[in-house]
Amino acid sequence: MSIVGKTYLEKGKRVVVQAQWNGKGPRNVLIEREDGSKVVRPFRGLRKVK
After folding, report:
1. For 19, which of 30, 33, 47, 50 is 20 to 30 Å away at the CA?
2. Of residues 21 and 34, which shows the higher confidence score?
3. Contact at 8 Å (CB) between 32 and 48?
4. DSSP secondary structure code for residue 35 in this structure
5. At residue 20, what are phi and psi to the nearest 5 degrees?
């Protein structure tokens, strides 16, 4: 199941998942924030957009 391209909320602001890593270890994702910045962070803590 891929989450790439899906929109989530980070601290109430929309972010789009650009890449995800699979395998052992933390579930990190590359996200793009509304201001255009990109950052790698844990998937944990992102919420679905309602």
Report:
1. 50
2. 34
3. no
4. T
5. -135, 155
